[in-house]
Amino acid sequence: xxxxxxxxxxxxxxxxxxxxxxxxxxxxxxxxxxxxxxxxxxxxxxxxxxxxxxxxxxxxxxxxxxxxxxxxxxxxxxxxxxxxxxxxxxxxxxxxxxxxxxxxxxxxxxxxxxxxxxxxxxxxxxxxxxxxxxxxxxxxxxxxxxxxxxxxxxxxxxxxxxxxxxxxxxxxxxxxxxxxxxxxxxxxxxxxxxxxxxxxxxxxxxxxxxxxxxxxxxxxxxxxxxxxxxxxxxxxxxxxxxxxxxxxxxxxxxxxxxxxxxxxxxxxxxxxxxxxxxxxxxxxxxxxxxxxxxxxxxxxxxxxxxxxxxxxxxxxxxxxxxxxxxxxxxxxxxxxxxxxxxxxxxxxxxxxxxxxxxxxxxxxxxxxxxxxxxxxxxxxxxxxxxxxxxxxxxxxxxxxxxxxxxxxxxxxxxxxxxxxxxxxxxxxxxxxxxxxxxxxxxxxxxxxxxxxxxxxxxxxxxxxxxxxxxxxxxxxxxxxxxxxxxxxxxxxxxxxxxxxxxxxxxxxxxxxxxxxxxxxxxxx
Length: 524
Fold this sequence. Notes:
single chain; about 525 residues; mainly alpha; MetI-like fold; two-stranded parallel sheet; 2 strands; about 0% strand; globular
């Protein structure tokens, strides 16, 4: 909660008339564009995620098993990387427009060119196609488990496949759709690279430019506060919209939905339909990265900076993962030892950081730890005549702290899920045999939950590697990671120079996709 409280205090102390100035100059443009972007991304990600989940759940066709896990691949593609890739792919001199002109018989971009993707429509399209897996995962789980019995009952009563989807499946999956769309919107709000380079001035971009370009920390804090209120409003609206709905699950064992067989042309058409989001969201930009990375490697080999950037990325992500895992274990195990409202609310408050975009967390961390650095420096100079400087901000500790705040939800939630699978009777048996709570944790809980902890650690590590806004704003001087290197090259218009770093981020991002695909196969 420290970054959020620091943000509130800084925003309240803003200079007189700053709110009016921001409202007339920044918020008047950034807020409507942010809302339009969220609406578009929410609709597109919801339609793609729900549609693909229904396709692989309700139908059997050639290549279905492949699509089940391949539809997760866009998760490995950060939003800023897909934007940079498509800026080159769809460039007037790029491969797509060149091929279109060749087919139509044109020889120059002056004769024919496709519309520029640097606009709101292009941003919505690209973000929707890379964020739809956040909807696909929970909705497919809903279709395959809880909804199986009811869908089969509706099918036996003669409901057509179209009515089964619109009147039964979608209403039943609404909680899962809402959760998935909410996660997709959080990621869209957190984005800074894609929105900036596609010409959309969101609140996130406004925070960065207000702070870095204009050196206006109070103004950036107030925009960040508006952004935080927007996040709270989104979550509240989603819960209010389904406040009267109740969902019940049969006490009997849930049956897996029996897919309808599609043969011949219909089956291959279904396969091609399912591959569309994969091609747009992963395959096309991945091929572009591989080609450009190979060209770059052949031309000059690995850059001398690559090893240093890789080391910075791995070390900081590794330290942050360890810190986040320890904090997540504390808040999750507290609920195990003393279940109740106190531990539950402590868990919720400790994991509130994931709802806030990285730029908001970064501003809050800067205010809180920057204030501590100044206090410590003044104290050391007064008592010992020694200046400590920016101890936390300058050493990178602030960045690790921001990672921990941002991704504590993933660690805490994953560990709590693992602990919840261990029967309470194991605890009681251990205590009856004279074990303390500490030795019970070491001998019982830790071995049985290590798989969940490893999965949580992997997800946190990959998210730290991919995180751009917080890294960009809190990194020490002369400190580069893969993500900041890519952003810097994109700012100069030389995307291909950082293609190897971008490819490395994507390869690391595939790791949790492999984990999710394995879990999905086990469950099905």
